[in-house]
Amino acid sequence: MSAPAPADPTGAIDVERLMADLKARVADRRRMGEYDAKVLDLPFDAGLGPDASGVPHVRLRLETAYSSKPVLGRAITAAKRIQIRSFFHFLNDAVTQVNGALASMRAALDAETRSREALEDRVRELEAELDELHAAREASEHG
Amino acid sequence: MAAAAPADAVTGQALAWQDALRRRGVGGEVFAEHVHPRLVGRVRPLSDFRPGEGPALLRMSLWSAAVERAVEVPRERLGIVYHNITPAHLLKRTNPGLAMLCERGRNALPDLARRVSVAIADSGYNARELEGAGFPDPVVVPLLLDVSAAPPARSGEPAPSVLTVGRVSPSKRIEDVVRAVAVLRRHLVPAARLDVIGSWEGEEGYRAALGRFVSRLGLDDAVRFRGRVSDAARDRAYAEAGAYLCMSEHEGFCAPLVEALGRGLPVVARDAGAVAETLGGAGLVLHGRDAALAAEALAAVLTGPDLRAELAARAARRLAELAPERVEAAMAAALEPLL
Questions:
Q1: Closest CA–CA distance from residue A142 to any residue of chain B (Å)
Q2: What is the ipTM of this complex?
Q3: β-pair type (B3-4, B139-140)
Q4: Cys staple from B194: which of A74, A117, B158, B181, with CB 3.0 to 4.6 Å?
């Protein structure tokens, strides 16, 4: 199907007008229910975060221990980093535990998401069957 | 800069500027906190950087240790090239670590404004953000891209194939691209298919969600996620596609739009950030995320030879404005106070 190609007197297509025409066409088609609502309205679930693939999700970031204060900035940065390093093993253990807990929670939530999506798909199938049954009943009543 | 990786726009710019400056007799090295193995030798590790050795340019796209090192350079010898920073809220859900670095990068801008003497933005949109952060008189220098001013003429019917290029990240709204192609197939061009080129490293959860979405739309045979590919494979994809679609939520410039124009590929893109400015009238611009409108616009370019010819003429004009020699001249003028 080719879109209308409005042209100005020089023969060039008025792209802005073309877009306005397309917008009006979409509005008309939408009003008439021509677009598949299942495609337009299917929810997108962006997921819960990276897959549990061994990539650490929480890690110590030494680069955040930075101060931009004039004059004292460098000394503050150095002091912060020394503090972090002195607690490294303790902090790293906490990070490992948090990552383990996150992986377990993610697995549980992913299973929940898959289950919910399967249920949503089933609901759509049942709604479609119901629509067909209604249509068949109406046809038999009028026939 | 924060990280150097193949097929990364910021890395590409750093290397292109280095080449351009060397052609002008100005030396220069590229330093990055993280260097991809394939770029070792071409890009040096940040630990080699010596703040007192000469003028320096900080390429800013997120927070990194490179920012810390750059501010050790005296103000009169430091410049910033601002590629924009993705708003953290667009990344927080799937990549909280990156979101944090983006947020921290944005928060650092007012401080950086006092520490640089030259501020360069690759679009007017980015320049306005710099002004808002307190940078006086930022200069716009568009991305330096190797695109021909005369895109190859395309003859015959285009393939019913849609292409999108860029990092597979929530801010790019790849789900909107997929939905638009689903509408296109269902109602307008049944043979339509989609190629997605770009890395999803660090966004594995989002990529998995896109895979589920594609399956639920029944598009498993029509959508390909190709990951990061070589420049040659990417150029082949531009040459073979029938239309380019960008539904990104946020762009500071969007190099793939210009690459598509340069390969004679008609572009349909959502107006977000600098997108309309980058296209400069050479594509169909959508306002909002309406998948039906995106599909109709794609159908218009795939099935309308007159429209394709008009867009090609506009693309040639826009590419002339972005010609490498013009951008190089703008770059040299912008850097003059530092050199």
A1: 31
A2: 0.84
A3: unpaired
A4: B181
